[in-house]
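From the pipeline queue, job 12 of 40. The input is one protein chain; the requested action is below.

Action: predict structure.
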Amino acid sequence: MALTMADNPPQPQPPKLELMTPPEGVFSVYSNHAGINASMHDIRLMFGELGNSTPEKVQVFQRVHVLISWLQAKAIARLLQDYVDIYEKLNGTLAPPTLPPQVPLTNPFQPK
């Protein structure tokens, strides 16, 4: 049985994304350190740059904080994972560095 146009109606095309750049340009920042805080409503991504470090102290220059919704966080997580997967396919597996123990995570949604 042959398929006809009626069997597969055309899918609507997504709107064209038009990126608008202000005359002064787009803010850009380098980061080699990141942190995260969360609430019931949104997530704060904190980006910084490592400074001088000793065994007793790690210096981080805070550069920018970005607040996003949980839905946007999920979309960004998927996008980042897709890009990492492509990178690793082309360049080999990324091995995370061995990090010192972290402060235990707290549940921001648990009443105090």
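Job complete. The radius of gyration is 21 Å.
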